[in-house]
């Protein structure tokens, strides 16, 4: 039986090198925060227990991940990685797990299989702790891993303290920042960490020497030379990682049969599903849990998030969020579909039309310059240019219903709550404040009067 493994994610830091007012772990990569990638990787670990240490803008981090509620540990003072683990230890010890893995929240790749191998290596060597190591051609900036004659890790020497001459030359094996601890044996040793260093912080790497002094071996498992375990500390590193992941996603979609034109300008998030036979023109951004079905065509300069697109057409400069665009429908150019909307089969949302929390049923059309909010637009309805649903009275939102085959003339204001009946016709320029019966003609505007002018010319 494999020992039970839990995880502590270090996510308390501000990330000063990022030069951002937001926590580093909330920096976005293809529309998703860095910490979200770590959580996603751990969802594939059966029954994994996960604790996240938060500090800088902790409430903002917690609000971003409501599914992790109750599993956050607050580090009010950021006194180092060792201090973060100390704060977590009460929960760790009470959980009954055998081993604890410590991860960095700014490292989106989690090598789950390699961590499992490291746990097995720790058990085989009877080690108190273990770490994944990297071998880099240029190790500058990384803590060097020093091993003893038996091959166990003896200590990690930080860059500022490393002198090649003292170690017989350059050391290319470096610390990845991924650790595994034997919970039972390392718990009593945590109190031996101190802050006797330039930063006045508890460094988790101190545990290597502490374990060695206690007669506990420290296992080191090489992970190769991969960039995957390098943390993201600066805007340059953030953009470099995003571009690498973007290329990987784009190439995978091309191989699967998706047509991506001008693909170097297409950004597609890791949770987006695009079916073979869909076509996307760059530049374009698609994020969240969007699903693009076979036959969909998305023109350039569109932004889409958390939406389902059937075999429809989305024209340039359109913005779609939290909505469903069904087969045969068209949106744009310059269409905006806000959350909670459903654009039915063969429906049309034209240029400069905004739809919010509304349903356009099959064949409904809103061609130009309109706002449809909190509305139910029936099949075959025609919405004239400049139509506005006045859905907000200053305190509450109200719904508008326009039933099948109704015709709404241009420049109409529909003051909700209001119902326009089946086949009704609303004259252009009307301000509709009362329900319109089925088949009726509604004229809700002042009568035109043509009067004789006393002055026949503006110049006289």
From TrEMBL:
TM ranges: none
Gene Ontology CC entries for this record: cytoplasm; membrane
Chain residues that bind UDP-N-acetyl-alpha-D-glucosamine: 10-13, 24, 75, 80-81, 143, 158, 175, 233, 338, 356, 371, 382
Region listing for Linker, in residue ranges: 236-256
Active site positions, chain numbering: 368 (proton acceptor)
Keyword flag Translocase: no
Pfam families: NTP_transf_3 (PF12804)
Compartmental location: Cytoplasm
Keyword field: Acyltransferase, Cell shape, Cell wall biogenesis/degradation, Cytoplasm, Magnesium, Metal-binding, Multifunctional enzyme, Nucleotidyltransferase, Peptidoglycan synthesis, Repeat, Transferase
Cofactor binding: number and manner: Binds 1 Mg(2+) ion per subunit.
Domain MobA-like NTP transferase: 8-128
CDD domains the record matches: GT2_GlmU_N_bac, LbH_GlmU_C
Needed co-factor(s): Mg(2+)
Residues that coordinate or bind acetyl-CoA: 385, 391-392, 410, 428, 445
Family: In the N-terminal section; belongs to the N-acetylglucosamine-1-phosphate uridyltransferase family.
Record's protein name: Bifunctional protein GlmU
The species this protein was found in: Desulfomicrobium norvegicum (strain DSM 1741 / NCIMB 8310)
């Amino acid at each position: 039986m494999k020992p039970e493994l839990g995880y502590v994610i270090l996510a308390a830091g501000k990330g000063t090198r990022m030069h951002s007012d937001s926590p580093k772990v909330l920096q976005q990569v293809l529309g998703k925060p860095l910490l979200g990638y770590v959580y996603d990787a751990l969802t594939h670990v059966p029954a994994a227990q996960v604790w996240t240490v938060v500090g800088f803008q902790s409430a903002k981090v917690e609000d971003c991940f409501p599914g992790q509620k109750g599993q956050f540990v607050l580090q009010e003072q950021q006194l180092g990685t060792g201090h973060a683990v100390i704060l977590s230890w009460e929960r760790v010890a009470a959980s009954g797990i055998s081993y604890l893995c410590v991860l960095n929240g700014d490292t989106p790749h989690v090598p789950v299989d390699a961590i499992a191998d490291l746990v097995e290596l720790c058990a085989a060597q009877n080690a108190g702790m273990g770490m994944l190591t990297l071998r880099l051609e240029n190790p500058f900036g990384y803590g060097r891993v020093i091993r003893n004659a038996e091959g166990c890790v003896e200590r990690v020497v930080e860059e500022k303290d490393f002198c090649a001459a003292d170690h017989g030359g350059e050391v290319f094996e470096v610390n990845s920042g991924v650790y595994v601890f034997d919970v039972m044996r390392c718990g009593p040793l945590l109190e031996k960490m101190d802050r006797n260093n330039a930063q006045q912080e508890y460094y988790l790497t101190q545990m290597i020497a502490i374990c060695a002094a206690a007669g506990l071996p420290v296992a080191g498992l090489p992970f190769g030379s991969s960039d995957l375990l390098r943390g993201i500390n600066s805007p340059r590193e953030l953009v470099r990682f995003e571009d690498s992941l973007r290329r990987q996603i784009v190439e995978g979609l091309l191989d699967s049969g998706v047509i991506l034109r001008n693909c170097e300008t297409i950004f597609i998030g890791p949770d987006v599903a695009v079916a073979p036979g869909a076509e996307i023109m760059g530049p374009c951004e698609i994020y969240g849990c969007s699903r693009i079905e076979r036959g969909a065509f998305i023109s350039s300069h569109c932004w889409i998030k958390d939406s389902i697109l059937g075999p429809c057409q989305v024209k340039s400069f359109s913005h779609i969020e939290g909505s469903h665009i069904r087969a045969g429908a068209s949106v744009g150019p310059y269409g905006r579909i806000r959350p909670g909307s459903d654009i039915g089969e063969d429906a049309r949302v034209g240029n400069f039309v905004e739809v919010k929390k509304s349903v356009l049923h099959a064949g409904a059309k809103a061609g130009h310059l309109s706002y449809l909010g909190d509305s139910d637009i029936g099949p075959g309805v025609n919405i004239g240019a400049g139509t506005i649903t006045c859905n907000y009275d200053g305190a509450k939102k109200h719904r508008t219903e326009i039933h099948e085959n109704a015709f709404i003339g241009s420049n109409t204001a529909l003051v909700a709550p209001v119902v326009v009946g089946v086949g009704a016709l609303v004259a252009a320029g009307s301000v509709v404040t009362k329900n319109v019966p089925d088949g009726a003609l509604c004229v809700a505007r002042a009568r035109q009067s043509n009067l004789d002018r006393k002055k026949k010319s503006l110049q006289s």
